Amino acid sequence: MIIAIDGPAASGKGTLARRLARHLNLPHLDTGLLYRATARALLDQGHDLFDRAAAISAARGLALTDFDEDSLRGRDMAEAASVVAAIPEVRAALVEIQRDFAHRQGGAVLDGRDIGTVICPDARPKIFVTASVEARATRRALELKGRGEKVDYAAVLDDIRKRDARDSGRAAAPLKVAADAIVLDTTKLDVEAAFEAALAIVETCAGGETLAAQRAG
Ligand code: DC
Predict the structure, then answer these.
(1) Domains of the chain, earliest start first
(2) pTM score, whole prediction
(3) FRET partner for 31 with CA separation of 20 to 30 A, picked from 2, 51, 87, 113?
């Protein structure tokens, strides 16, 4: 079973994907980390964020073991990741890592922007997680505060709007709802309610027996 979870920044898709994976005993890949790590490698090598050739080379040199997740989670890397993610060759360089992960025996949960549309078009179910931009900014501000970052709500809201525009407006694999995705709007849901709703989607898609076997295995 490959579960694809897509959605805009701070929609709660990462938290949902992690919880579903834990619940179902499946490995989980947060594909945003690949773009964040590409941006980090690029900047660490002293290149400009808009240096296309260097960005492509950084993406090609990436391995899943490279990640220091904590250093990739900040506001600066979110913005930088969104810039390098618009380069088609960067995206192409990261396709195989994601597909290899998805096609492990037993299945996987992947979250990102183009999992259901480009990386795993055959994934079932596909869940598109969304929430109002204000709710997402509030959540992201709380998360950043929890990480010890100084937070200005208006700046976070502005960041998210910019990222939405860039991630949805780019030509290469833009953020969009796959034709066969189920949209889950979490604006009015807390983490628990969002998880229950996502699990219900997975259960409907898989059927009770398959899911019980999955959990046992
Ligand atoms: O999910 P995230 O916020 O960690 O993602 C950071 C950026 O990476 C996001 O703004 C766009 C890009 N991204 C992407 O283009 N495709 C993905 N599958 C995941 C992330």
Answers:
(1) 2-199 (3.40.50.300)
(2) 0.92
(3) 51
